[in-house]
């Protein structure tokens, strides 16, 4: 596990055409410092797995406008009108999943499960092309697990070993994404010494985390602000 001095150093290994999981619900709990640095990096053809693709001109929305995103996999794309416009122009592929299905598919990927059957989406357009199976008289569709090359997550505190603690609703998709990627970078507000975090408050154990970096951009009631 490495403590990076800058976000630029933290995302150095990210490459074009990778699949990247990004935590957050809207901008809440999103790793805004890492996303901002990614907007400065010369990459393209990215597949982004995230609840949504940011907001108009904010967060992952900047990457969409830069045409660095080839495909988005998520559940709430209408929070950013630019995403719909890019899709209509044929510049962006979208895979829409119900929010619970998105969460469970990521969890399955982190748990080493290849996929699962769910009733959600049966009989709708979301089930087109998916395997259907009847179990005890009930129809289900098969959903494959989701995994990624890299996960960018946002936590509140980390110790120098890489154990992570989350703050309130920032604990949305971040913990499960930290289990479902080959390489995990955590953006945090504070880095403390081992033993300063209570074992009961640690949500993501250090064995899932490859690197941490201090946040320099945070979300406030007035929008995204630079700190530090």
Describe this structure in words.
The structure is a single chain. The radius of gyration is 18 Å and the shape is globular. Helix 2 links the parallel strand 2 and strand 3. The chain contains six helices and 16 strands. The strands form four sheets. The chain has an eight-stranded parallel sheet. The chain has a three-stranded antiparallel sheet with strand order 6-8-7. The chain has one domain: Glutaconate Coenzyme A-transferase (3-Layer(aba) Sandwich), CATH 3.40.1080.10. The longest helix is centred in the middle third of the chain and has 13 residues. The mean pLDDT is 96.
Overall tally of domains: 1
| Number of DSSP helical runs | 6
CATH architecture: 3-Layer(aba) Sandwich
Q: What is the number of strand segments?
A: 16
In what order do the strands lie side by side in the largest sheet? Answer: 1-14-12-9-2-3-4-5
- The backbone outline, from C-alpha atoms, is globular
Please tell me the overall pLDDT.
96
The CATH topology comes to Glutaconate Coenzyme A-transferase
Helical percentage: 10-25%
**Helix and strand sequence:** EHEHEHEHEHEEEEEEHEEEEE
Q: Structural class, judged by helices and strands?
A: alpha/beta
CATH superfamily membership: Glutaconate Coenzyme A-transferase
């Amino acid at each position: 596990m490495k403590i990076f001095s800058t976000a630029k150093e933290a995302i150095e290994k990210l490459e074009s055409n990778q699949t990247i999981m990004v935590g957050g619900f809207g901008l809440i709990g999103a790793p805004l410092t890492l996303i901002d640095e990614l907007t400065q990096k010369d990459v393209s053809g990215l597949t982004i797995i995230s609840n949504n693709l940011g907001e108009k001109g904010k967060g992952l929305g900047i990457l969409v406008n830069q045409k660095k995103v080839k495909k988005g996999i998520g559940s709430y794309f209408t929070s950013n009108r630019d995403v719909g416009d890019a899709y209509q122009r044929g510049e962006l592929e979208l895979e829409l999943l119900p929010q619970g299905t998105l969460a469970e598919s990521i969890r399955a990927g982190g748990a080493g499960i290849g996929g699962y059957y769910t009733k959600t989406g049966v009989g709708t357009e979301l089930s087109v092309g998916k395997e259907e199976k009847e179990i005890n008289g009930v129809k289900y569709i098969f959903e494959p697990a989701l995994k990624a090359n890299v996960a960018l997550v946002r936590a509140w505190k980390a110790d120098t070993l890489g154990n992570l603690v989350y703050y309130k609703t920032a604990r949305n998709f971040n913990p499960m994404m930290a289990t479902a990627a080959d390489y995990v970078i955590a953006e945090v507000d504070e880095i403390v010494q081992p033993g300063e975090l209570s074992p009961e408050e640690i949500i993501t154990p250090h064995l899932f985390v490859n690197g941490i970096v201090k946040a320099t951009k945070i979300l406030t009631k007035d929008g995204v602000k630079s700190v530090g």
